Amino acid sequence: MNPQISPQNRILSIDELDRDIVNLAARINAATSELLNLIRQFDERAGWLKWGLANCAEWLHWRCDLSMSAAREKVRMAHALKTLPLIATAFSNGELSYSKVRPLTRVARADNEESLLAFALKTTASRVEERCRELRCGTVVSLGEANRAHDGRSLRVHRNAGKGTMTITVELPLETGELLEKALDRARDTAASQTPQFVDECWSVQQADALVVIAKAFLSGDGNKIACTSDNYQVTVHVDRSALTNGDGRSSLPIESVKRLCCDGDTVVIVENEDGEPLSVGRKTRTVPTAIKRALYARDKGCVFPGCRHSRFVDAHHIKHWSAGGETSLENLMLLCSRHHRLVHEGGFRIERDYRNRWFFKRPDGRAVPSCGYQAQDMIDDDIHQYVDNNTGELSRPINNPSAEGFLTALKSSSVMSPRP
Predict the structure, then answer these.
(1) Domains of the chain by range and CATH?
(2) pLDDT tens by residue, 221-267
(3) Rounded to whole angstroms, how far apart are CA atoms 267 and 236?
(4) What pTM was computed for the model?
(5) How far apart are CA 215 and CA 222, in angstroms?
(6) Is the pLDDT at 415 greater than 60, yes or no?
(7) Contact by Cβ (8 Å): 210, 187
(8) Closest CA to 214 of 228, 202, 204
(9) What sign results for the dihedral spanned by CA atoms 143, 144, 149, 153?
């Protein structure tokens, strides 16, 4: 080698570059493992207090120039690895990358650490991320993720008069977005069959035109023209049976969202091995047969949630879910609109029987939902009942509780207040 050429400027062969990059990546993994170990020790000893900061993430943000989100994630991983010795060892040896360890620390436990490590060592980081997401969705912990996705839904419209255009940005939960995508596919194919030159346009232009087709069909009351009748537009959700029955398995969506979707829809059972490879596929079955659905509509007329008058866009809800042994019978079914169906599955509302063996709804806080509206007294805690006049519902003297007083004021002006019979 020419002594005048430094190692940094030496032209390496492709094989040498491959080897050096892989070795350096392994050393970076090992160094990152050491960094997380130091962060855990620093946090356990509350070293950040010396600088008057509130937590270790703030210290990392200030001292190591990390963003707050990255700092919080490193602190979380540092503490998680303390109870995952197999994953921690593989990480410190450079066998696992940060991109694999990050999702693993969210779902790994003592009983599944060994199998997850074996899976992670023989596959890509993207597949590890997907497997861990399925494991999170297969447990009740995913309920929070489902609610955050639902609460975050939005649609924004921006008009650009100068360009003569309008930009529409929409964010939806995954299962709702999949539904919209299938509707666009159907509208796009319908437009292509009616207008041959449509297929010459690029994909994004076709999608934009498909959205216009859906809007026109809705406004003209002719939405049946784009009704979905083909399995080409069927949305597929993968979920373990153990996730449905025990809340401990894999699912491609939060498990309560899956139960809601399975209440009233077509299902195809696909049996897979532990690597997600299909072993067998069953026939498509209707969860609620047409005859039972007709009888259900005749009985309930619409959503049965107290105070709801929706008679369209309602689902047949299994009170005891079929995955837990609930029968698909009139006795175990009721109609719920999309909003209240979601509240029952993901919103914490429950359905129970009263002393007369009739179904009634309970709020997440355990209070029963009355069939004919709330009274002011129904919403006040026991220790402040003394402040409410039983005849008029008025406050007899001031309440030293701003939130309770504000709730009373809002309740009196609300339509849910109904007079006593």
Answers:
(1) 14-133 (1.10.10), 172-229 (no CATH), 241-286 (no CATH), 290-362 (no CATH), 376-412 (no CATH)
(2) 655 444 444 444 455 667 777 776 666 777 777 777 777 777 766 66
(3) 9
(4) 0.54
(5) 10
(6) no
(7) yes
(8) 228
(9) positive
